[in-house]
Queue: 4 jobs
Job 1
Amino acid sequence: MMQRRPIVGLALVAAATGMAVAARLLVVRTLDGSLLMGWPGPTLGQFRVDAVLVACSAGAALGASGAILQTLLRNPLASPFVLGVTSGAGAGVAFASLAAAMAGIAAPTGAALGVPALAGALAALGCVLLLSRRHGALDPVTLILGGVIVGAIASAGSTVAESLLPPERRGLLTGWLFGRIPDVPDAGALAACAAAALALTGLGTAWGNRLDGAALSDDEARSIGIALGPMRTAMFIGCGVATAATVALCGPIAFVGLLAPHCARALVGARNRLLVPGAALAGAGLLTAADALRQWIDVGGGRLPLGAVTAVFGGVAFLVLLRRTAAGWMS
Amino acid sequence: MVSVSGIRHSGVRVRFRSIRTVARMPSILASLATAVLLAVTSACGRAPAEAAHAPGAGSATHIVSLSPALTRTVCMLGGQGAVVGRTPWCEAPDAVVVGTLEDRDLEAIAALRPTLILRQSRTADPALETVAASTGATVHTWHFDGVDDVRSGLDPLAKLLAAGGIAGAEAAARDLVARHQQAIAVPVRSTLPVLFLFSVDPPMAFGSGTYVDDLWRAMGGVNAVGKAGYPALTAEDVIRLAPSAVVVIGRGSLPSWLGSASPVQVQVDAPDLLEPSARMLVDGPVSLHRVDDSIAAARSGG
Amino acid sequence: MTTLRFRSPVIPRGAFTLTPGEVAPAAGRVTVLIGPNGGGKTTALRAAAGMLVPEQGAILLDGAPVHSMPAAERAARMALVAQRPEVGAPFSVRQVVALGRVLRPSAPDRIEHALVRTGLAALADRPFHALSGGQQQRVAVARALAQHEPGGVLLLDEAFAAVDPPEAAALVREIRAEAAAGATVLAATHDLSVASALADDVWCIAGGRTTAFGLSRELLTRQSLPSLLGIAVAEAHGARGTIAVADYGAILPDTPR
C-alpha cells in the first residue's frame, strides 16, 4: 500500500461523502420510473434534508464506533453489529415495547427509545467482553464468536418479544427491527444521535495516539504509558452510547460500522487521529449512499427497506473482507 | 403510526418475512431459540382447552384455519362451531391457538384431529401435508389478493363445509355473493385518483390487483397508485402522487406531511377493509361508500 | 543513571509465588535472566515494569515503587519488550516503532536511529504484518530503544526467540551499546550462546526464587549451569571468552553416529 499523504485521503473521503449527500439530495427515481434530478423545492426538499441529517448522524456514529472497536479489540472484523451491540439495543427496545404492552401503555417512540436501547447495548457489550476474556486478556477470536452468539441470542429475544406482543402492536416492532431512515425523524433522537456521533468522533480523535498505542499487547501498551483500563472503559461505553443512539433513531443497522473503518483506512491509513474522523465521514457517506440507492432501485414492489440494501451490499462486502483478513491483519 | 400487521394479508406478511430473513444474518440460532421458547409458551395454554374440545358425537367436521380471513369466511358461512384451531389473530374465541401460517405447531394441529386444514399462501407446506395425511385431514390452500379470488373461493369452501355436515353453507355463499353484487352496484361520487394507505410510517398503499383497488374501481373510482401489490412508498412519493384524496385505513395519528400530499385526508377504522374475507365482500363496499361520503364532504368544505 | 531494585517483593501467581529476595540489577550492565519455563522470569520482568503489584515488599525505580508511578513518567524511564510482539492494527514498521513515543512530543530522529540500529531501515515502510517473526521481534526491540531516554531501564522478555543468528548478533550489539550508555538492561533468554555474548551479570530464577545471581563469567560455565538449569553444558571459546552451549547430545544413548 503506497503511503500517500493521509490528509489527502481524508479529503477524498469527505469528497465521496459529499457526493453521496448530493446524490441523495438531488436525484430520485419517481414511482413511474423516470429519473428526476435537481432540487425539488422546500416541501419535498425538507424530507431529503432530514434523510441526509439522519443518515449522516447515524452513519458517523456507527463508523466512529466501528473504527474504535476495531482498534481496541485488535480485530479487523469488530463492529457494533458483529459484537452484538446493535442486536442488544434492538432487544432492549423490543422488551421495552413488550413491557409497555403488558402495562397497557403506549410503546415508547422517538427519543424515549434511547434508554432501553442503551441498556440493551451495554448489556450485550458486557456479555461479549466477559465471554471473551482468556487469562485476563481479550481473545480476538472468541470475541467475534461471542459477539455473533450474543447477537443471535439478542435477535431471538427480539423475536420472542415480538411474538408475545398483542397482534395490533406487533407490526410496529417488526417494521422497526428492520432499520430505516424515518420520513419524519424524531427531533430528540436526531439531536442525541448527532451529539453522540460528534462527541465520540471528537474523543476518538483527541485520544487518537492513545488508541494507536492500544494496538500493542496489553503489557506493552501499558509500558508505553497508556492507561488501558480507563481508556477502554470510556471508549466502550462511548461506543455503546453512540450505537444505542443510532438504534433509537433508525432501528438496528448492520454493516456500516464494519465497513466504514475499512474504507477510511484504505485512504487515510491506520493512525487513529485521522482514522476515527475518516471512518465517521465514511459511515455517513455509506449510509447516505444506501438511502440514495433506495430512492433509485425499484424491484416492482415499491421501495426496498433500508435493511435490505445494507444487508445485500454490506453482506457481500463483509464476505470479501472476511477472505482478505483471514489471518488477522494480513492483507 | 398505523400498525402494519393489523392486516392479515398473506401477501404483505410473506413479503415482509422473506425480506426480514435476508436482513437478519444470524437467523438459524434465532429460529431455534424462538422455536424452543414458543413451544414452551404455547404448551402452557394448551391442556385445559384440549379437554373442552374432545371430539363429540355431533360435530362431523373439525376445521383448523391458519388464516384469519378464512376463519371469518367460514364463520360467515355458518361454520363457526366447527373451527377448533386458529391463529392468534383469528376471531373464533372457542378455538385453540395453533400458531401462524409460518410458525404452526404441527403437534397441536394433529392433536385436534382436524378434517379440514385451511391456509392462505402461494406455496405448499409439505410438513403440514404429512401431518394432515396422518390424521386423515385434507389441506386446502387459497391465495386471496383481489375480489375475484375471494368471490370464486366462496363456492368451493361452501361445498367443503356442506360435505362436512354444515347445512346451509352453500346457500349462505350464494347469499353473500348476491349482497356483494348489490353493494357494488352503487357507484361512488369520487372519480379523481384516490390513494389508499394501510400504513403511514412507512407509507404503504393498496396497489392495483388488490381487493380494495378492485372494489373501488368496480364502483367507478380511480386508484392513484398504478403499481401492483402493496408498494412501500416514501413521503416524497406520496406528495408527488398528489392524489385528490388520501385515505388511511386503520387507527393511529396521521403525520402532518400528509397535508402536503392532498387537501383531503380521510381516516377510516374499517377492519373489513384490512382482510380479504367474505366480510370484505359485503361490508367493504359499505366502508368505501363512507369514505366516498367523507371525501365529498371534505371537498365541499365540510 | 536509573536504579532498579527488587526489595523482597512477594507476588503470588497461582502455581507459584515469586519471591526473588533482594536483587539489584546494576545500571550500565546487562543482566541476563535465565531459568526454567514457568519459573518466574516473565513474572519478574512484568513486575519490574509495574504490571504486577507486590503483596509485600516493593520493586523500586530510583527509590519509588514502580507500580504506583505515573504511567507517562514510567514510560519515559522504562521500556518493556513482551514475549510475543502483537500489533492489532495495520501499521507500518516505522509507525510501530513510533508507538514507543506516542504520548510524548515526537522525535523522528530517535525513531530513525532506532530503525537503523536494528537493521530495519530498509523495511521501515512495509506493513508490520508482512514481516517474518524474527523481523517483528526486532521491530519490538527498536520500539523499546526509541522509547526510553538514555540511562533508563530496558526489559526484554525472550527478545531473541525467533531471530536468526545474524539478526541476533545485531541485537546483541545494540543492547550492549544501550548498557554502555548507562541503561539498566534486564533480558530473559533461553539461548545460552546469546546469554554468553550479552551478559555481564546472570540472574537465575527457578520456582519463584532466586537460585543464583552473579557474574556471567562465573555462572555461565560448564560447572555452574547444569545445577541451575538441569541440562549438560559444553563450552566453546569465543572472541571475548568462553561461550556456554547447551549440550543436548549428553542425553542421547551411547550409539555410534
Note: The mean pLDDT of chain C is 89.
Job 2
Amino acid sequence: MIPKKIFTLIISIFLVNSFTIVSLSVEPDEILKDKNQETRARNISKKIRCMVCQNQSIDESNSPLAKDLRLLIRSKIKEGKKDKEIYNFLTDRYGDFILLNPPIRSGTILLWFLPVIFIFFGLFIIFNHNKKSKKI
Amino acid sequence: MKNKIFIIPGLVFFLILLIFFYLLTMDRNPSEIPSNLINKNVPNFKADTLLKKKKFISTVEFGNEVVLVNFFATWCKPCRDEHVYIKSLANKNEIRVIGINYKDNPKKAIEWLKTLGNPYSDIPLDENGRIAIDWGVYGIPETFVVGSDKIIKYRHVGPITKKIYKKINLLVENLK
C-alpha cells in the first residue's frame, strides 16, 4: 500500500511534467517576431542535422554551429527564401547528410525499400511453412 | 528438410555478424563525413585580414597556384597540434597556405602566431562563422587543398597528422 500523501505527490509530479514544454535550444533572441516565419524556421530546423553532434537536429542542439545555422535559416526566411531554397543552400554545402531524412537517390534506394522486401520475404516464408505443415 | 530451413537464418545471422565485425575493425573514422565540395569551385567570399590592411577577395586570390586553406582558431587545441605540419607544408614544400581565422579574438591570434610562427600568407577573418558555413565546415581544424583551377581537390576534417601530412604533400606535388 502506498500512503496517500506519496501517491498524490507522484501524481502531481507527473502532472507538472506533462504540462511543461520540452525545453529546446532555441534561444529567446533567435525567435522571429512573425509567428508564421518562426514556425517555418522551427520546422526546417527539426529536419536539419547538427553536424557536430550528428544525432540531434539543430533545433535540439546547443552547439555553436547549430545556433549559427538556426540564425542563418531565419535570415533566409526573412529574405523571402522558400523552404526548398533553404534546404538546397544547406545540402550544397554539407551534402545530403545534413538532412535527417535521407532523400531517395540511387544510393539510398536499398535503404528505403529493403524493409519492404524483407517483410514480403518473411510473409513468403511463413506462408510456405504453414502450407507444408497443413499437409502433414 | 525441416532442419535446412532453420539453418538459413543462422547463416544470415553469421553473415551479418561478419559484416559488422569488418566495419568495426576497418580503418575509418565514423564522424568523418564526405564533403560535398570536392571537385567544386571554391566558395566566393570577401573578408578583412588579420595582418594586412587590404581585404581578402577570394576571386582574386584563388586560381593562380595550388593553395592550402586551413581553418584555425587560438581556442582550438588540435589547431596547435597540427601547426607544425602546416608550417612544414608552407616552408619546406613552398605551398601557399591561407589560414582562415574562425571566430577568434584578433589580438590573441596575433600573439598565437608570434609564439608558434606564422605559416600563412594571408589570414582572412571569419568573425561570425559565415565563411566556414559556405565551405561546409563543421568542426575546426579543417584543411582544404584547392587546385590552380580554383577547384577543391581534397578536404581533411580534424588535425593534420603525420599520415595526412604525407598525403597532402603527395597530392600537392601531383597537382603542381
Note: Chain A has two domains: 26-102, 104-136.
Job 3
Amino acid sequence: MRNLCRLLIALAAVAAVAVAVAFYGLIQHGVSARDEPTTAEAFVARRLRHLAVPRAGREAANPVPSGPEVLARARAHFADHCASCHGNDGRGRTKMGQGLYPKAPDMTSPETQNLSDGEILHIIENGVRLTGMPAWGEAGSHDLTESWELVHFIRHLPKLTPEELAQMESLNPKSRKEFDEEEQIRRFLAGEDVKPSAGSESHDH
Amino acid sequence: MRSKLVGMTLLTVVALAGSALAHEGHEHKVMGKVVAIDEKSIQVEDLDGKKVTGVLSAETKYLREEAPAARADVKVGERVVIVVVQEREIQKVKEVLLGAGAPEGAEHKH
C-alpha cells in the first residue's frame, strides 16, 4: 500500500513536471497553425481517423465504374472544390493547404493511397474533425455518385499528366479581380492597347 | 503618452513598409515589352516605362498562347507577361507568357 502511494506520488510529480514544461513552452512559443504536428500527434490522429470510419463504410467498394468521362467530370469537380487547399496535383502545396493544422496531405503518398475506397469516400462525405477538411456530404442526400467519382480521381492523382494539370488551372475558382487580370493579359498579348493605370504589374498571394 | 503614440506610429509604418517591399514568395505579373534577354535573365519595360529584370532558370516555363515554347522564341521588342517570384533580393521568373507572334522588326536574340 505504501509502495503504491509512493508510485502514485512519483507519477503525479512526473505529470506535473510535464504539464509545467508544456505550459512553459506554450507561454514562450504560443500556438501556431504553422507548426508541424508531432509524430505522436500524427500517429494518434491517424488511428482516430481510422476508427472514425465505420467498418461497413471502410469495406465499401466503389460502385461507379471508372472511365475517361468519369475521370474528366471528377477532375473538373476537384479543380473547382478541392484544389484551393489540396492543389490541382493533390500534393497540398497551396497557401491555404500549407497554412492548415495539420497541413493538407500529399494525396499521392501511400498515407492516402493505401486508404480503402470506402475510407476515402467517408472522409469526403463526413470531413475530418479538428482539421481543415469539411464534410461535403449533405444531410438527407443519398446520391454518392460524385464522391465515388472523386475517389477514382484521387486514385488517378499520381498519374496526372501536364495536359490534365493545365486544363484544371482553367477550371480553378477565380475572383473578379483575377478574371479581369486574365482578360487584360489576353488583350495585351493579342496586341490591344492596355492602359497602364489598369496596372501593368500585379501580385497574387 | 505623445512619445508612445509617435513610437507606435513609427513601428507600424516600418512594419507596413517592410512587408510591402519584401513580398517574399509572392507572385508578380509584369506586362510589357522585352528590352533584353540572355541565358540568365530577361529585362522587360512595363507599361509605366519601368524596367524590371527577372532571373531565368531551368524551371522557367515559356508559353505561347498556352502552348509550350522556349527561351529562343522570345524576341526583343515582343510583348510579354512575366510571372516573377520574389526570393530574397532576386526576382525569379516562373513563367514567360508570349502572344500569338512576334511583332515585325523584333530582334531574335540568343
Note: The CA atoms of residues 5 and 40 of chain B lie 48 Å apart.
Job 4
Amino acid sequence: MSILIDAETTFIVQGITGREAVNLTRECLDYGAGAKVVGGVTPGRLGRDVHGVPVFDTVAQAVEHHGGPIDGSVVTVPPAFTKDAVFEAIENGVKLIVIVTERIPRGDVAQMVELATLRGARIIGPNCLGIIVPDVIKMGGIGGPAKNAAQAYTPGPIGVISRSGGMTTEMSSTLSAAGLGQSTAVSIGGDAIIGSTYAELMPLFEADSSTQGIVIYTEPGGRMEAELARWVTEHSSRLPIVAFMAGRFMDEMPGMSFGHAGTIVEGKEDTASEKIERLAQAGITVAERIEDIPGMIRAKIAERGSGALGATAGAAASQGSPA
Amino acid sequence: MRLFEFEAREIVKRAGIPVTDYGFTTNPAEAAEIARRIGGPVVIKSQVLTGGRMKAGGVKFADTPDEAEAHARDILALEIGGHMPRGVLVDPKAEVEQEYYAGVVWDGPRKRPVMIFSPVGGIDIEQVAAEQPEAVGRRHFSNILPFSGFEAKEAIAASGVTGSAMNKLVPILTRLARLFVENDMTLAEINPLGRLADGSFVALDAHMDMENEARGRHKQLLADLGVGEEETRQAREATPFELAGEQVDAQDHRGVAGNVTEFDGNLGLVIGAGGGSLTLFDAVRAHGGKPANYCEIGGNPSVSKACGLAKLVLQKPGVDKIAVMMSIVSNTRVDIVARGVIKACLELEMDPAEKIAIFRIPGAWEEEGFKILQRYGVEYADRSVSLNEAARRAVEKIQGVAA
Amino acid sequence: MRADGTFIAVEVEDAAASDSELARKLTDACPVDIFATNDGGGLEIVQGNLDECVLCRLCLDAAPAGAVKVIKLYDDAALLA
C-alpha cells in the first residue's frame, strides 16, 4: 500500500522531448511494474514518440487519446512556461502534478497551488524529484535508472518525506540497508513555496495502514517544520517521526543563500537550533547523523505499539518483497 | 535581491503612492543643491543595504544646504556593516502627525502573500506584533484573483484604524499589494508611512526585496533603476574566489557547480547534491575539519565543469587536499565526476591519489566510476559508507592520523 | 585515425574515416561533439571533447561494425561494446 500513486496510476510527461524528460520517461517505464505513462506533451511535436510513448501538442489530446481522465503529470517544462503547463494540466482534469522544474518565481508557484486547491488537485514540488512506491512505480527522476532505484528503495513500513531529492535516496538507502523499507518516498521540493508540505502529507500517511513510521529530511529556513510540529500535536498522530536536519552551520551565517531557495535564514525563528527544539517539543526526534535514523525510528515504532513492525514485515513478505 | 532605499522609493513612486520630494546623489555639492531646492530642513540618509544606519551615524539632519553638504560628505565616506554607501538620499524633513506601517510579504506555509498594516509605524514591526498585537492587522490575499481594495480595507480594519484615514489608506495599500505581485517582490515595506497634518499620507521610507528567480522578467525596470545585471546584492560581497566559482558554473550549461562560498580552512570540498552539501559541510565541521569552501555540484555536470570546480578549489591558497562527496546520485554520473576531479589534479601536476582525500559518490554509473578511481589509486567509498563517515575519514586523512 | 584523451580514446578505421556520409552521421550522433566534419567532408576527431564521452554507443550504432572503436584508457584499454 502507498500514498498518492500505485500500480494503476496513469500519467503524462509535459515537456517529454527535453533531455531530462527523455531519461526520466525511460526510467519510469523500466521501474517496478512499469509506470503507465500514457502520453507526453510538447507543443508542436504531435505524432512523435519517446520510448514508445505518444507525444501530443496538448493535454486535451492526450486525454482524448487515453479515452478518459488521466491521473497525473510530471512537468519538466522550463520555468518561464511551467505555470502555463500546470494550468493546462489542471484545467484538463489532472489531479496529481509533480513539478520537477526549478527556479520558478514564487508568485507563479502560488498561483499554481491556488488553482490546484480550487480544482481539487494536488501539486508535489516544484524543484523536486517526484514520488516512488518501491518495486511498484515511480513518478519522476527519483532514484535514477531502474537498477539504481531498486538498490536504494525497498518496500516496507516507513514513509519518507524530504525537501532534497538526493537526500530522499540517501535516507531511503540507509533505511533499506537496515531492513526498514519504504511505503512511499516523496521528494517535496526545496523552494520557499511548495505544493505539499510535510503537514499536508501526514493525513495521507496516517490513512495508509502499511505506514508505521515517518522519516523526514529538513533544512533551516521556512516554517514548514513548525507547521508539522503543530499538526502532530493537534492530531495525536499514530505515526512516530524522526527528522534529519542539515545545515546547522548556517546559524552562523545569516543572509547568505545556501542549499535550496527556501533555505535563506532570516530572523530567529528559522535557525536550526530553534527548529530542533520546536520539533522535540512535539515528540519529533532529530537525528544527528543519517546512520542513526533506522535505529531511532525502529525504537519509536516499537514504543508506540507492540507487533506493528512484525505485522508489517509479515504483510510485506507476503507481497513478495525481499527479506 | 535586496533593493536600495532610493530604488525602492522610485518603485513606490511609479506605483502611484505619494512620496516626499527627495533627491538621490553621490556628490556632496549636489546634496546642497537638492537641499536648496527643497528649501527647508532635510535628512541625509546613507544608501547601504545593511540595517542600523541611524546608529552608525548614517542618518543626519541638516537645517541648511551647507550642513547638508557637510553631512553628505561624511556619510558618503562612512562604512556601515562592511558596506560603503551607493550614495545618499536628501529627504525633506516631513511634519508628520503619525507614523504607520504597511508591508506585504510571503507566507510560506499559507502559500499566499500577506498584507500587514499597523498604526504603530516607525519601529520594528516584529516588536509591535509582540507587544501590541491588537494594533497589527493582517490579510492574506489571493494570487489568482486580481487584488481588490476591500482586502486592504480588511487589513486596515483589523488594526483598529477607521475614519477618513482608512479611506485614504485603502488606495495606497492597494497599490502596494499590486506592486508586490507585479514586480515579483518577496518583501515590500513602507515604514514609516506618514500621515501629515492635512490628513494625507506620504511614504517616508521603503524597503524591498525582489525575488532573484524573477529578475529576468524585470530587465527594463532594473535597467531604469540602474541595477547592474551582475549585481547579486548578497549580505556580503562575493570574493574573487566566489566569482571564479560563478564563472566555472556559467561557462558550461551542463549541470550545476554553484553556490561556491569561501571559508579559510585546508580541506577543499567538491560536494553535492541538494541537501548533501549541507549535510557534508556540517559533518566535516563536526569532526573538527576546516573547510576551505562550500559548494554544490548537481544536475548532470560535464567533465569540464567538474574539472573547473576541482581546479579552482585545489588552487586555493592553503588547501592541502580535497574531498569529493555527494549523497546517492540519480542523474549525476559518478564516472563523469571522477574523470573531472582526477583531470583537475593531473592538469595541475598533482597526484590524484595524494590530493583527493576521499571520493564518496554512490549511484548512477558507479561501477565505471570506481574503475577510474582504482586506476588512479584514489581512495573511494561506496554507499555502505555514510556521508558522515566519509567526512570523518577525509578530516582524519588531512590531519595525518592513520585511518 | 586515432586520438587519445586522458580517459577515452577513439579509433576510426582509415577507410571509414574518409567516408563523408559516415562522417556526417557520426557528427550528428555524438551528443558531446567528439566528431566533426572538415571542409572536405572528411572526419575529424575533436581531441578536447574525448574525455566528455558518455559511453552512449550512438557512434558505434551509426557506423559499420568495427569501424569505430571507443577505448576506455582507465580500464586496460577495454573496448566499449
Note: The interface with chain B takes residues 6-7, 32, 51-52, 54-55, 72, 74-75 of chain C (CB under 8 Å).
